[in-house]
Amino acid sequence: MTELSDLTHIKVIQEQQSLRDGKQRRMLRRQLPELIELERILAESPAQFSAQVSASIPVGSFELPIYRVDVGDAPADRPALLLLGGVHGLERIGTQVVLAWLSNLANRLRWDEHLSELLQQVRLVVVPILNPGGMFLNRRSNPAGVDLMRNAPISAQSQSTFLVGGQRISPMLPWYRGKPGQGMEPENLALQSIIEEVLAGRPFSLSLDCHSGFGWRDQIWFPYAYRRRPMRNISSIMALKLLWEQAYPHHDYQFEPQSEHYVTHGDLWDYFYKRHNREASAPWLPLTLEMGSWRWVRKRPRQLFSRQGLFNPLATHRHQRVLRSHMILLDFLLDASANYGNWLPTKSEGEWLRAAARMHWYSKGENL
């Protein structure tokens, strides 16, 4: 792991860029503008920002970095918020939303004392592009053809959806899990190291993984994807949902377990969540933002004939609207993490919230 925080951001990013010749830079600007934008944000960021290269992914003549960005200096006994984007290379809008919010933070920290104080109360870690190789190659999988969201060592407990639920037939088909017994891909191993380091010893943690996918609404998913049963912290999920709806009653997000749509093998957040529960008692709520791309396609049907258009808003005004629309959610999650003690349910509250969650989300199944 390469430490970047020991030097000024401008010097470090200039050194990163100087390693690439002009032709490589032009290709990166065309194929991976999100990486160029991230490096610009880091080069111009205030002192509260620090960064590391958690792993480097080889793609042809390139070594593409997986950046981890830490914001603020909250001590180890404070809660944590982890934001992630770019797990699927085709879903660039997830990374772009994260970058827009990160740029917003960098600019506000130059004058917003309240934000500076808030970031002393919560550990904020951002991984804007987990799959730089897939994004560079303009495909869902990583350069090895593996779908990172189907690559964890966890299997579905009921019938998974054909192909979509993860397959080992061929890396030439989507949703490929990787070879049996091969272990997780380097991108996922880097993420595992980040999660273990960031969550260790924290009294509370929250995470959001930003994707886009087929749907008419923006959805906020939570585990499980490998089975249709409630997670251990389902009462806390319900409390967070109610907190959000009380604060923003006119929102357009739909909270639901991922298994409401399909059951999958190898889900990263199922695996990391269960792993965390075995080793720690402090709650962690892993969320996934699934932006509904069918709304963009409906308003611009010719996007159906573009791989990018299936998962990203292509019209400039619509793209800008999407970047704006999720800023409130990310600000809310930062505030909710810092103030978890004011809304996380007590034992007695947890009992009725769990019952409410079971009735709301699981009453159709056999596990009510």
TrEMBL record:
Cofactor dependence is on:
Zn(2+)
Recorded GO molecular functions are: metallocarboxypeptidase activity; zinc ion binding
Q: Does the keyword S-adenosyl-L-methionine apply?
A: no
Entry's Gene Ontology cellular component terms: extracellular space
Q: What domain of life?
A: Bacteria
Per the UniProt record, the source organism is: Marinobacter psychrophilus
Domain Peptidase M14 stretches = 28-333
Task: Give the family, as the similarity comment puts it.
Answer: Belongs to the peptidase M14 family.
Q: Where is the signal peptide?
A: none
From the UniProt record, list the coiled-coil ranges: none
Q: What is this protein called?
A: Zinc carboxypeptidase
Q: Supply one GO BP term.
A: proteolysis
Keywords of the record, alphabetical order, are: Carboxypeptidase, Hydrolase, Metalloprotease, Protease, Zinc
Q: Could you tell me which InterPro entries the record lists for this protein?
A: Peptidase_M14
